[in-house]
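ok so i was messing around last nite and threw this chain in just to see what happens. nothing serious, just curious
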Amino acid sequence: EEKHEKAVSSTQFRLIPRITISDNSSEVFCVRFSPDGKFLAAGCGDGGIRVFNVSNGKVAYNLEGGSNVALPTTAIRFRPVTASTRTKNVFLAANAAGSVQHWHMTSGKCLHSFEDDHNQVYALDYNDEGTKFATAGKDTAVRVYDEATKTNIVTMQGGVGFSVKTTPGHSNRIFSVKYTPDENVIISGGWDNTIQIWDIREGHAVRSIYGPHICGDSLDLFRNEIVSGSWRSQHQLELWDFGSGKRIEEVPWSSSQLSSGPSCMLYAAQFSKEGQGRFIMAGGSGANEAKVFDHINDNAVVGTVTGLTRGIFSVDFSPDNEKVAIGGGDSCIRILDVSNKDREIDD
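result:
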């Protein structure tokens, strides 16, 4: 026993539960902190979008989805606050009914909406400048839009046929899409067990990474590392080299091989936002858990949220990495502090 304990890396950080918001009417499919970290937007199974005050967990804004069919709000992304985006507090919300809506959080107005009747949209992302956004979902295509004009710039899909010229792409639903720092390159993942790397200039995917089974917002990129969270009972949390496409390592979910009970199949995975990509957070169903790992400290476990009755569908780090939020099937939203134990003594 003692030997095993010594072999496990330790970290000076820990998770401290802060607020549990339990008065939601339906499952929480996505949670997202605002760029200033003061608000948390939640997309719910009834299509509603509720924005909470992070300091006390109270509802600050209640934005009803504009869809007449009550299908889940599947993804939310706040528009980055940059020189090119004049209005603050704008976010994108995608709905399983196929709509993509621009909301102004503080006025509660829907600024713009478009529907793709034949598609269900599961994933969204903005480029760093906030000048373009990408959508993806059921129909296996990645679409890129101009933020100012809301027009479709390019639609990228896998090639058809079996010739030498066939371009890669997805053969099934896409659940995660992510801009890289090079705004011409986007990565995506889904049910077909691939990560596709798309180049907007080429208009199609240029490379594929084989392995991850993506069923939620569980792809992220920091510098040259991709993290993937797969909805499966083993090899769930993996890191890949963006340049070569090779797997760097697997982050083991449980330190003990003897742990009984169901394993945790991941719906969500993310690097922390600032600095050195210090933390990785992931969560899912089966064991209904979320964990935060200290990535630069040999992936030592910072903390685990466990004992939930339903799966976790979404996780998010606050912009300053001092808080995390999780949402899922039990209709609750949990906000926790990522606390530095060394600092706690000084305080």
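not much to say yet. The helical segments are 2-7, 341-346.
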